[in-house]
Description:
Shape of chain B: globular
Number of strands of chain B: 12
Helix content of chain C: over 70%
Strand content of chain C: under 5%
Structural class of chain B: alpha/beta
Number of helices of chain C: 12
CATH superfamily of the domain at 87-283 in chain C: MetI-like
Oligomer: heterotrimer
Distance between the termini of chain B: 28 Å
Helix content of chain B: 25-40%
Number of helices of chain B: 9
Strand order of the largest sheet of chain B: 6-7-8-3-9-10-12-11
CATH architecture of the domain at 87-283 in chain C: Orthogonal Bundle
CATH class of the domain at 87-283 in chain C: Mainly Alpha
Order of helices and strands of chain C: HHHHHHHHHHHH
Amino acid sequence: MSVLEVDSLRVQLPTPSGDVTIVDGVDYAVEAGEVLGVAGESGSGKTISMLALLGLLPERSTVHGTARFEGRDLITMPRRELRDIAGRDLAMVFQDPFTSLHPMLSVGKQLTEHVRRHLHLDRAASQRRAVELLEDVRIPDPEAALRAFPHHFSGGMRQRIAIAIALACRPKLLIADEPTTALDVTVQAGILRLLDRLRREHELAVILITHDLGVLSSIADRVSIFYAGRVVESGARDAVLTHPRHPYTHALLDALPHPEVSKERPLVAIGGAPPAPGRLPTGCAFNPRCAHAVETCRLEVPQLVVAGDRRLACPVDPFRA
Amino acid sequence: MSALELRDVVVDYDRRGGGSVRAVAGASLVVERGRIVGLVGESGCGKSTLARAAVGLVPVAEGSVEFEGTAVTPLSRRARPEHLVRLQLVFQNPYSSLNPRRTAGSQIADGLKGTRAARAVRVRELCEVVGLPGTVTSRYPHEFSGGQRQRIAIARALASSPSVIVLDEPLASLDASAQAQLANLLANLARDLEVGLLLISHDLAIVRHVADEVSVMYLGKMAETGPTLPLWTKPAHPYSEALIAAVPRPDGAGFLPESLPGEVPDPAHPPAGCRFHPRCPYVFERCRVEEPRLEPLPNDRFAACWLAGSKGLG
Amino acid sequence: MSSLAYALRARPRASWIPAAWRQPLAIVGIVIAAAWIVIAIFAPLIAPDDPLAQTFTPAAGPSWHHLFGTDELGRDVFSRVISGSRVSLPIAVTLVALAATIGSIVGAVAGYFRGVVDGILMRSTDLVFAFPPIILAMVVAAVLGRGLFNAALAIVVVAWPSYARVVRGLVLSVGDSEYVQSARLLGASSRRTLVRDVLPNVAGPVFVLATLDLANAILLLSGLSFLGLGAQPPKAEWGSMVAEGTQYFQWWWIGTFPGLAIFTVVLAFNFLGDSLRDVFDPRTARRDAEVEP
């Protein structure tokens, strides 16, 4: 059974000009020990779809669909129960390690408080657990680190601490939202290796949200590509990234500099810009930027359907093998 | 004569609460017209400070910065000397480098002279060069996306007919597609307008793609410099090697990038000997006591490593 | 999307509520302030009686004839409150404009020249800030001598430093901003960027501060008059009217209605200033949709 199974998730956010659909019928599943990579440009709905699961959306947002976490639906669950699960069985790590930690509390306080509240451990036991956690995320000299404050640490170390806090209650699922975007490549590599080790050792399911296909390619087992609030292509990492079939996935990969590509060849940028939520074109949201669009693309919203080794939302399928 | 030449530049910063920090500790760099020089390194290595020193935004404590044969003087209250205006800087964040209360057109025209009509024509031309429609001139910055703002910032720099533009992380805040568009634009500027570009970036993949030469900076000094492709395929300095190995590859093969343990040390207390030795996998006795200088290697390459000469880079 | 997520996290849910209820308050502020301005302009037409004429039964309670009653000397309180607006509002506007001008110049000079100039100017503002405003205004007004003009002058003396501080801070931060540095690198002199880039960005916050300060000025002016240092009898000034009222507590209407006038004006300008702050807030301004040409 999947740790998390999201089915036809729809999210509408209130804006000054009325409700706007940000996520429009998204589904995915993650298994224990698996990393699901979620990629897309900014504004594609990837973060909002995760915040919706945790009940972290602004007031007056509407969420439809189901999100079964170990068999129970997060969407319809009472708020109090959700709060109990979020933070214990289901943890989140954010992009900015400079704002996700409390600046005025010691690392030890932030770690042990969390552990004590959710696991009901006494002082000594929670202290031991905190040291264990810092060792697990490879913080040198964990005893001293517990007494230190977040500003004593570099960005990479802070992100490790944030991950330690997320792992404190042995979650089944970790949602990491752009966890390495603010970091140097050298430090990013360390965090990616850490996530990779944790999911192997702890059978942790990980949802990794990123705009960086390189990051995705290094640790994701399966990937979902988001565009304008929908999944346009999903499947095994090597299938989707080595042989992309949706014109959008294809274009995203073409836009990246690749070591084997000659310097003389310019990067292939996608024409136009992603549509603003609430002002989507009719039919396939990508059709105005797509070189392969045909008449149906402008009329009908393509459904995500099984297409060989993956699921694809493109009736044209120009890159079929 | 080189367009922009930095020789043994040292920049000190006053630290809050007393004391000073040597952010740049003797770095040299040359940018020729029409060439793109990439400057890479982890955050805190001094690359942004070096960029500011190169255009005169921060004063140089030692060493020299020369632009087309004349010294680059630090900015005072007076207008910048005429000949230095052809040396420009584009900042990382396109949201803070444009005045929110002035139209795009008026800001692009900042570096232009001549009659109102002539300036308006030139502004439209510059918009075209950077790939924006001429109609954008009457709009305000908040009406544009990040990528478009960065184009406006570049058009603004181009208004002074620059021979060198220093770009401090110009792509960092943009989506992949906008990055690709801008990277292509930079390559075109160098090729078509003969502008020399100093491209500071932490994104090594982009630098590899567009730069003719690369300088790798570590803790205020150059660790290695050289033509891009040879440096990439066979880095001479262990730090370059680590940086390159840490770049993830979007090929779907599941290659897990190599992490470089440790962190950039506090520039106020650089390690003795080679600055990189505490993090270096090849460290040996000499590295701990004696600092290697940037020495020439075959094929226009330079590296500051005791082992560089023995790597057979001929 | 991450930027949206960041915005959602950065703005706690609670702050969505004030944004919603601030709107009606802004409208209340505008309506009340506008009403008072209209009243001040047409005071002689609105006031049924001469505010100084002592022609009625003294100390009569509110009635159809005298809406707010009459005072101990037989003057119509309603007419005196109406004509009092012609004293407080124009003086408050003038003195706030004066304080804002002086303070902004001092602040701009300090922020532009920095260094020693900055040190001297800012220490002098600190000196003024060291005293509670009403005490300092009392001392200045007492030294200058009683009278409305001197009281207004005293308020200018205590009011300018806050403008100096705000403007200096803005000139420093905008002056160091990347867009000013870019303009400087393109060959603009420091003075040119001050005029073209810095000052336009300073104007908004100063305007907000001035609107809020209008309320303070009216309060201070009334306070000084209440203490006998401002407007002198028989002039119909709200503060001095409240002061008179305190001597006759059994005739509550004498002091209460001018007090309500002060209260509504102060409230209106505070609401107005708060909503103006939102108008000039770049975060709210940035909400416009981005265009994709």
